[in-house]
Predict the 3D structure of the following.
Amino acid sequence: MSTRLHACPPEDSSRLLAELRGALPRSDHGVLLPGLLRSELSPEDAGREPLLAFARQTLSGPEPLAATSVSTWARAAAERLLPRLAARAPDAPWRLHVLRVGDPASQPGARRCKLIEAALLDELKERRRRVLRARVPDPLAPRRPDEAIAQVALATHEAGWLSFTDGDEARRLRRVLSRFPGGACEAPEDRRPPARAYRKLLETELRWGRHIAPGETCVDLGASPGSWSWVALQRGARVTAVDRSSLRTDLMQHPSLAFVRGDAFRWLPDAPVDWLLCDVVAEPLRSVELLSRWLLSRLCRRFVLTIKFKGDAGDSVLRDLATLLAGAGTEHVVRRLDSNGNEVTAWGERGETGGPEPQVDC
């Protein structure tokens, strides 16, 4: 059996455990530490492409590491990493993440991770300089299909794991293996939008590596007071906002915005649009049904949609969402964003016949 570790906020451990048991039912899953779950995968489940909303980061094939100082951490990690990096093509890209996992009360500080990362890069430079030329230092850089991710995960000052994910395994895990260290991606603050909900759309754009483009058409369902419409208008898009309540006055007067006073769950466009945006407050199943109608009718090319929960109720609807997205032929991600409350966000793109494969990142 192969092993994976899944990191999440400690308060999400039970929800992630339930999600793992539903997504990978032939495997053994358990909570290793608060905020860190272990999966012992059956051969059948190891070949699946998991979709896990509550996993912030995934480590495949974790190897235990133990060290007492920054320098010994760097040497131990370099010993494990160098054979893997040396076996790849000289220009094959890879990323290095040094992160904290597990119980926050036992984790080292962020500064220790930065010191270990710097010392590890020095070790690699001294032993085999060429492997550093292919490293991707910017987490915002789009992920290439041949990219690997090396992760050094510290649970305490002296114990943790090393994970190196490459090739077919990296492609299988593309929806749960974030190119951001620890899966953390903070959207920038901005006081101009009508409400803080704008952060969810900005964070999705950053994770996806794709922004709404000038001239594209967007429908914002349940738009009031207008934070997501504001983002799209800032990008130069043409926006149709649908809600029973008006948006903020300046948005209502924007020349690129058309406002429709109506029911977000009933309204449909006359022609397909580039983007479906939806942050409406609704029962989880209603939001999935709304997305299903749009995708199966091919009314949008791309989508960003929030699924909102009340307590833990409604988590099971994520299985319905996964079935819909797989059946609709989309490349997609579902994740609890750093900007989300008790909700998750789904985003993705519908493939076009004869066109390039959609690229969706997390």
